């Protein structure tokens, strides 16, 4: 299935000459270009401090660049005010982090359902968010998609690390965002659990979600269709658009 070339529409991610300097003068990104097409599955690799998380935060509109252009799903971040930006983020981007960030003591179902609370509007205009009943029904679906249909009432402390990360992934995709961003999602997991989490990311990608995943794991990165390598705030290698959607390359 060559969905990448077949599907119309703007790239999901566009970075043009993006610079990020933090207060104090650290230049985390020194002019990065990146384009990710719909349906891709991309690994971002590189040593600690090379700018991977800074880049993902910009792609996720959690931060604004010092200079350069960032566009997500065709929307230029610079053209949006903070309210529009949070609507864009809430409807089009899912996030997964190394340490899960689940609410303690809260059942998996509600942790996931809460992922729909930030969908009060859309980038195209205001829209009302789903009811609690609908949120929970969609959360159950999302947990089934990540293989946790039998754990909906479990609280985070009753789940393994791999299961916690699956809950976090379910929360990230419960609103069906076109783009899923994951920053070291296997960094806190043993090899087998990490492989399971990567399997889930692959399945989501095969079902149409564009996935960008930061990883330290060379084997994992090498198994994905495209690798972008960062060093000292610059993109030093890029294997280019793969077939994505589970295709081999
Ligand atoms: P990576 O994810 O590849 O480890 P980061 O993007 O986190 O790299 O960091 C890149 C550089 O920017 C590092 O030198 C780091 O110390 C610095 N940095 C990251 N976040 C901040 C911040 N909020 N304030 C100041 N410096 C930061
Ligand atoms: Mg990082």
Strand order of the largest sheet: 6-9-10-3-11-12
Any guess at the CATH architecture? 3-Layer(aba) Sandwich
Which radius of gyration do the C-alpha atoms yield? 17 Å
Distance between the termini: 12 Å
H/E series:
HEEEHEEHEHEEHHEHEHEE
Bound molecules: adenosine-5'-diphosphate, magnesium ion
Contiguous low-pLDDT stretches (5 residues minimum) are: 121-126, 244-249
Keywords:
249 residues; alpha/beta; Rossmann fold; 6-stranded mixed β-sheet; 4-stranded antiparallel β-sheet; globular; disordered C terminus; binds adenosine-5'-diphosphate; binds magnesium ion
Q: Can you walk me through this structure?
A:
- By secondary structure, the chain is an alpha/beta fold.
- It has one domain (13-238): 3-Layer(aba) Sandwich (Rossmann fold).
- It has helices spanning 3-6, 52-59, 82-92, 108-113, 132-145, 161-173, 191-206, 218-222; strands at 13-21, 27-36, 41-45, 67-72, 75-76, 93-97, 121-122, 125-126, 179-183, 210-214, 226-231, 234-238.
- The strands form 3 sheets. Strands 6-9-10-3-11-12 form a 6-stranded mixed sheet, sandwiched between helices. Strands 2-1-4-5 form a 4-stranded antiparallel sheet. Strands 7-8 form a two-stranded antiparallel sheet.
- It is globular and about 45 Å long.
- Adenosine-5'-diphosphate binds next to helix 2.
- The site of magnesium ion has 3 residues, from helix 2.
């Amino acid at each position: 299935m060559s969905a990448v070339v077949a599907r119309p529409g703007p790239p999901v991610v566009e970075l043009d000459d993006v610079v990020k300097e933090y207060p104090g003068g650290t230049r985390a990104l020194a002019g990065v270009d990146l384009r990710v097409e719909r349906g891709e599955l991309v690994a971002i690799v590189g040593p600690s401090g090379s700018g991977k998380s800074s880049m993902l935060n910009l792609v996720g509109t959690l931060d604004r660049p010092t200079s350069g252009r960032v566009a997500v799903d065709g929307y230029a971040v610079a053209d949006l005010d903070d309210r529009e930006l949070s609507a864009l983020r809430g409807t089009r981007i899912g996030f997964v982090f190394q340490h899960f960030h689940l609410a303690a003591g809260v059942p998996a179902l509600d942790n996931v359902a809460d992922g729909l609370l930030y969908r009060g509007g859309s980038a195209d205009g205001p829209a009302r968010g789903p009811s609690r009943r609908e949120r929970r029904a969609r959360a159950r679906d999302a947990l089934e998609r990540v293989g946790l249909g039998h754990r909906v009432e479990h609280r985070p402390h009753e789940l393994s690390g791999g299961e916690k990360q699956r809950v976090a992934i379910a929360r990230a995709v419960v609103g069906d965002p076109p783009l899923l961003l994951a920053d070291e999602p296997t960094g806190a997991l043993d090899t087998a659990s990490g492989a399971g989490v990567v399997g889930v990311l692959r399945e989501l990608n095969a079902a149409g979600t564009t996935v960008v995943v930061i990883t330290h794991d060379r084997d994992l990165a090498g198994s994905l269709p495209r690798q972008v390598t960062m060093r000292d705030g610059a993109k030093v290698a890029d294997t280019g658009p793969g077939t994505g959607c589970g295709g081999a390359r």
